[in-house]
Every structure is written in structure tokens, then in C-alpha cells.
Amino acid sequence: MSLSKSASADGTTLTIQIKGKFDFNLVQSFRQAYAGINDTTVRVVVDLRETDYMDSSALGMLLNMKKTLGTSVNAIHISNCQPQLKKILQISRFDKKFDID
Amino acid sequence: MMRVLVVDDQPINCTLLKVMLEQQGYNILLAGNGVEALALLEKEAIDIVLLDVLMPIMDGYETAARIKKLSSDVYLPIIFITALEEKGSFERCLAVGGDDFINKPFDKAILSAKIKAHSRTRQLSLKAHEQNKLLEYHYNQTEREHEIVEHIFNNALENQYAFTENIDFHLSPASMFNGDMCLVAQSPIGSLYCMLGDFTGHGLAAAVGALPASRVFYTMVGKGMAVSDIANEVNTVLAKLLPGHMFCAANIIELSSSGKSISAWLGGLPDAYLINQQGDVLKTLESQHMALGILETDEFERELIHFEVDPSMRLVLSTDGIIETTNEYDDYFGEQRFIEVLASKAQISSNEVIKHVTNFAHGTKQQDDLSLVLFNCLAVPAPKKEIESYSPLPFNFSLSLNSTQIKQTDPVLEIVDVITRVGGLKAHRSNIFLLLSEAYNNALDHGVLGLDSDIKNQEDGFMEYYQQREVALEKLTGAMIIVDMRYCPETLCVYFTICDSGNGFSADNNNGHSLTREHGRGLSLLEEIAEQVSYNASGNQIEMCYRLTSLQA
């Protein structure tokens, strides 16, 4: 379980990548990952390509991020979800608030 | 020592020539007619033949023709012995393969000069023949080695030709081996990766780097790694393996399986273009980084660019061979022409673009490998997964955790790891994790620790909630959580029972469990993922049934 973040070359996209398990253990580091977001950032990507597990606490963390960032970014993408995680996001109607890819 | 064969039916001529030539240090063999001469040539090494024209049994003309046929590889000079009155036959002597004439009566100086001249040519020819043989040997050896290497390359660059819907590419190497490479692969979650690389130079030396680079690429795509991680790893491997002056300019891109977004690492190749179906450039993507194999791992730049795409868009990747192609006036093909060609026809193919480039070169020798990738931004069908068969054995797992164990561990993932060892359950690990995590954390947070989920709804409540949780967990004593799982091969279901030592809830005591409230996202998730969820009367036990066949739905 780990979290890493990176900015795109042009500084407009912040990518937060989560490996392994996305649950309440990440509550601190996930919040820190987007806390100091730049003015130039217009897009946040939560990349779940290496995320095998998530539960409702992860959903809460994502909603919290959405609330905190508000309109300061144009979009929050949740990308590269494995099928079962995608289904969890769909069941929770996250596709209404996030761009799920 | 040069060996001269004298062929004459007149013993007097034979003797004369033998004496004269032996004085000059030549080794002499004698034959009385063509048949004898040919027999000698079969078994003796001869350097020069002196041949009389008129002889019994086989005359000089026929003999000369046969000798030339025998010694086709190396020059074997034939000097005809002629009388002046035979001048008319000179032409015929040359036609059958004669190289020179010596007139009777013999002039010692002329004879000596002619033999010397022809033996020099003979020696040169022998030497050339030796070298040819050596060359042929090396050539064959190289050919064989190339064949082996080519075989390895073909196998290494395995599925270049899959995904033809998405990828239309053209590679034309300047020599047998391509210093450019185009790698294509799909990750387990369905996103499509393409790497176009151009190693320094061309030919075999340039191509060798393709082997380690492709291994890294395929392995990492197989694990669904991010483009930045792949670029970083290929860089590390190439920096370690390649000599200092060699590197690999490359673009690595990933199209999400929905076909909606692209991530790209661009290092050292010419501009990439995002074009529409008509070929108009929508976006120019400049190289962001140094080529792969130059920087040390700790100074490597991983930054990607991201952009949204739709099915009408195509991404154009190329190596510098295209824009640097020159024509007979030494003009470059250049970016402007390249952009014009892309827009010269709707949905232009890679072969059509390359045709424009080679027409422009107009027969000028190809200097570098020409490579072009046209990447259609279409959704990619996910790869078919092999389905592991379900175990026929009825496994049963159970564990009860005391306060110390509850405090010190976060047991859910470990339990999931154990239960998914049962054949067929691995494919369900995310769902099983979710069910266990929700049920366990509910039992712990609300059953055992007595936390109130409402905190989460307050301003900054999320963090507050987990801080309270930590404090409560610290103080925990005398608690217990029991987790029980049963896999049933007949019904293909997994049954979970999680019960805790907490107070549970009742209709009039509503401040414990969140399960009864409308709050829980967790609860609605459980009910969607599990086939059935139920609670006992005292509210401290949850039972769930998860149907394994639900995944196909």
C-alpha cells in the first residue's frame, strides 16, 4: 500500500497513484497529496491502475477531495480502474461527480 | 616455385623448352598431347601451360577449351606455341581461351619475359582467390549469425501486428536490422500502450538495444504499470547496458481502455501530432525530455503529458528518418511537408505517407530508418482473462481476534490473502475485500469502539473521525471480533459471519451501529455486492452471502 503523486510536464495535471489498498490508512497522505495543489493545476487524476482493493472509506476520501478542491480544478478523473473497483464506483453513483475512465 | 606444363608432340621442342625454363628456376612437366596434358592437370598443380596447336589425339584448340573449363576459379595462363606461318590461327587460339603466343623458333628473352608476366598475373589471381574464399567464409558466417539474430528479434518484438484497429505503423529499416522499434501491448485492465523508439545510428549495432528495452516494456505493460514507470525502467536498463554514445529517442504512450485519454512520455523524437480524420493538426506535442539511456536513474525526468481524446482523433508518432529524408537537391522532407502529407487525404494510411516520403527522395539512397505510427484513439476491447476453475473442496476459515490483536493489526487484507488461495477466488479478491472490510470496520468502529458515523458529516469530520478512532482503539480492552467464512463448492457461494463483542443496537438504542441508518455508503455497497445481507436481533452480528457467479453478470 502506498501513494505517490506527480505533476504533468506542463503542470496542469496532478496525478495521484495508489498502489495496493485504498482505505482509511491513507486518509492522511491522500489529503496531503492534494492539499498544496498549484494554481496551474486544472485536472486531478486518481490513477487506480495498481489499486487492487478499496472500500467505502476510500469513497469518503474521494468525496472529501471533491469538496475541498471545489471549483479550483476543472475535473477529477478516476482512471484505470479494475472492473470490480469500477463497479463499486458505479454502484455508489460516483460517475455523476467524477470522470471515471 | 612456379610449375610450367609443356604440351608438344615434338620431343625436340619439349626438350628445348624444358632446358631453357629450368635454367630460370621453373619446374617443368611434359605432355605429348592434349589427353596427357588434361590427365596431368587433374593430379598436378600447374601454374602456366605452354600448348602446341597441332598434335595427334587431341589438338591445342580442344585442349585449351577444356583446360579453361577445369580452372574457372583461378586464372591459368595458356600460351600457345605457334609458328609464324600459322598467323591465321591466332584468332582461333584466343577464342578457345589462349592468353598469349610464343613463336618458334624460341627466343629465350621473349619466352622468359612472357612467362614472368603471366606467372605474376597467376599469383595475383591465386591471392585474390584465397581472399575470396576467406571473404565467402566470413560472409556465410555473418549471414548465419544475422539469421539467428533476426529470429531472436522477431520473437522479441512479438505482438507488433496485433491491435490493427488502433495501430497502423510502418517501419522501413535502412539496413537489414532496424534501429527503430515499434512495440505494442495491452495491460490487464485493457489500456493500450505503444512505444516508438529510435536508437542511435542504424543496423545491428543500433538494433541490439531493442532486446532489453522490449523485455522491460512487455513485462511492465503486463503488470499495467504507468507510462512514467515504464520510461524510468527502460532508461535505467539502457543506461546500464548501452555504451556512452548510444541512446534511444522514444515516445511511450498509453491510451485508456475507454479510448478517452492518453498519457505520454516524449523523449527526443520529432514532434508528435494529434490530428483529426482529415489530417489537420489539432495539437503539436513537443518532446519533453532527453532520450532514454542517457540520464542516471536519480536524475531521470518522469513527467508525462495527459490529454483527452475521442474516436475521431489520431496520434502521429515518427522518428527523424522521415523529416530528415533528403532529395537529389539535398532538400529535407521537413515538418511542413510532413504536415501537408498528413492532410493530403482523409484517414491516410502509414504506407501512403511513406510513399510520399520515398517519392520525394526520388531514388536517393535511404540514410536512416523510416518509422511512422498512426494511432487511432478508439476504445480497446479488454483482453480475455483465463478463468481459474473453482475448487471442489468445502473450505472453512474462522478466526477470533482479541483486543491486542485488534489494536496491532489491520487484518482484512491478510484474511483476504488467505481465503483467495482457494481455487477460483482470486478473481473475486476486490469484492471479498470490500465485503470483509466494510463488515469488519463496522464491527470495530461502531460495535466495539462505539464511534458515531455522524462525525464524518461535519466540517473536517472525516479526519476527526479517524483521530477519535485511533484514541478509542488505544484504550480498547476486553473486546473480541470473530470472523467466519465458509466456501461452498455446490452453491458456488462464500458465506461470511462477522460478530463483535459490542453492545449491538436495538430499536430504542440508536447510537451504536450505523448499519440501521441511512448513512452508510458501506451498507449500500454491501447489499449490491453480496447476494444477501442480514443482521441478528441484537445487532452485533452480520451475515453475508456472496455468489461467485455474480462476476459474469
What does this protein look like?
The complex is a heterodimer of chains A (101) and B (553). Chain A is an alpha/beta fold and 101 residues long. Chain A has one domain (2-100): STAS domain (Transcription Regulator spoIIAA, 2-Layer Sandwich), CATH 3.30.750.24. Chain A contains three helices and six strands, in the order ββαββαβαβ. In chain A, strands 1, 2, 3, 4, 5 and 6 form a six-stranded mixed β-sheet that branches. In chain A, helix 1 runs parallel beside helix 2. Chain A is globular and about 35 Å long. With 553 residues, chain B is an alpha+beta fold. Chain B has helices at residues 11-23, 34-43, 60-70, 90-95, 108-156, 204-207, 210-222, 227-241, 320-323, 334-342, 350-361, 403-408, 412-419, 429-448, 461-475, 521-529; strands at 3-7, 27-31, 48-52, 78-83, 100-104, 167-172, 180-186, 192-199, 248-255, 261-267, 272-275, 281-285, 305-308, 314-318, 370-376, 396-402, 480-488, 493-500, 532-535, 541-547. Chain B has a five-stranded parallel β-sheet with strand order 2-1-3-4-5, with helices on both faces. In chain B, strands 6-15-14-11-12 form a five-stranded antiparallel β-sheet. In chain B, helix 13 (412-419) packs antiparallel against helix 14. The longest helix of chain B is centred in the first third of the chain and has 49 residues, at 108-156. The chains are: A alpha/beta (101), B alpha+beta (553). The A-B interface holds A 6-10, 13, 15, 17, 21, 23-25, 27-28, 31, 43, 45, 47, 49-50, 52-57, 59-61, 64, 77, 79-85, 87-88, 91-92, 101 and B 187-189, 191, 224-226, 228, 256, 258, 260-261, 288, 302-306, 382, 410, 413, 416, 428-431, 433-434, 437-438, 441, 456, 462-463, 466, 520-522, 524-525, 528-529, 551.
